[in-house]
Design a protein that fits this description.
0% strand; Receptor-associated Protein; flat; 15 helices; mainly alpha
Length: 323
């Protein structure tokens, strides 16, 4: 009897255990199938890209060389060079301009010293050649400012026509920005955009003068700011300012015509010794090389070079007249 009870208990226990294992296996397989389906769905779906990290710090690249860029960021010279390059409308960096100047100084000075052995004259020649990139930047800046002066009366006439037609001052500035070519159009476009971004008219006009420091433009900005505070007919004021600028420009051209002979004399007297010396060296190198092979010749070279530079500066002071 006891044996029968034990066998029945073992049978019931075995059946219950089998049922539990079967149910657990089914649940586990179902769970695995569910996880597989979810994984496949997540893999197939396109995840949204994370938001890009925006660096709000305003970092300006002054040079492609990292060490030189860090040095220029610490110096006060870099903002001035960058502003000068902007005024010349050149896409160079301040570091690139400095590297070009250093290269233009080192190579000619080394080659001339290797040929003649004169340290002082080699350094002087290196300085003259090394200043050529800066001279080119100043030349481009002067040419751009000259073109700005020529286009400014036309831009003022356009503003006067817009104001008389009933447009506001901002609309007339926008009209000049779209109708007048560079450099006047681009500078007035920046001024118009600054006002749209929330700057006051006075601040935008002062920024315009900072970018283009011309006397004619200062007259225009002064007339606009005075009219803005005191009122009056701005179209008539700008019309008279345009007339004054045209007369001033005409007088400046007349002065340049009268001083053309003096300027040409200065260039000839400054360049003639260099050209003549180079020509004599090409004809007879042994005879010309006595100037830097003997001590008295070296002293004469230094004296003649100093007198030539002083004479060129005096002639330039005479022929340059402010109008």
């Amino acid at each position: 009897m006891l044996l029968v009870i034990v066998l029945v208990f073992l049978g019931v226990f075995a059946v219950a255990a089998l049922l539990l294992v079967a149910s657990g296996t089914g649940t586990s397989q179902q769970t695995k199938r569910t996880l597989t389906v979810l994984q496949a769905a997540l893999t197939a779906a396109d995840p949204e890209p994370p938001d890009p990290i925006v660096d709000v710090r305003k970092e300006e690249l002054l040079s492609a060389v990292p060490m030189l860029n860090r040095m220029l960021l610490r110096l006060e010279l870099a903002p001035r060079l960058r502003h000068l390059l902007y005024q010349a409308n050149l896409k160079w960096t301040a570091g690139g301009l400095i590297l070009m100047s250093i290269t233009s100084f080192v190579i000619p000075a080394y080659l001339f010293h290797l040929k003649t052995g004169l340290v002082g004259f080699s350094l002087l020649l290196g300085l003259l050649v090394g200043a050529s990139p800066m001279v080119f930047v100043l030349f481009k800046r002067k040419a751009r400012f000259g073109k700005f002066e020529q286009q400014l009366p036309e831009a003022l006439d356009l503003m006067v026509s817009a104001l008389r037609a009933g447009h506001s001052l901002n609309s007339s500035i926008d009209l000049v920005a779209h109708e007048v070519p560079d450099p006047v159009g681009s500078e007035f476009r920046i001024c118009f955009d600054e006002q749209n971004y929330g700057l006051e008219l006075k601040t935008a006009m002062n920024n315009l003068i900072y970018r283009v420091p011309l006397q004619d433009l200062k007259m225009v900005v002064t007339a606009i700011l005075i009219q803005k505070e005191s009122g009056g007919n701005l179209a008539e004021v700008l019309d008279k300012v345009a007339y004054v600028i045209r007369e001033r420009f005409r007088l400046k051209r007349q002065v340049r015509v009268h001083t053309a002979q003096g300027r040409m004399t200065g260039w000839i007297l400054s360049l003639l010794p260099l050209i003549l010396g180079f020509g004599l060296y090409m004809i007879n190198p042994d005879n010309m090389s006595l100037l830097w092979k003997r001590e008295i010749g070296v002293k004469l070279l230094y004296l003649s070079g100093s007198m030539t530079v002083v004479g060129a500066l005096i002639i330039r002071k005479i022929v340059n007249m402010d109008v």
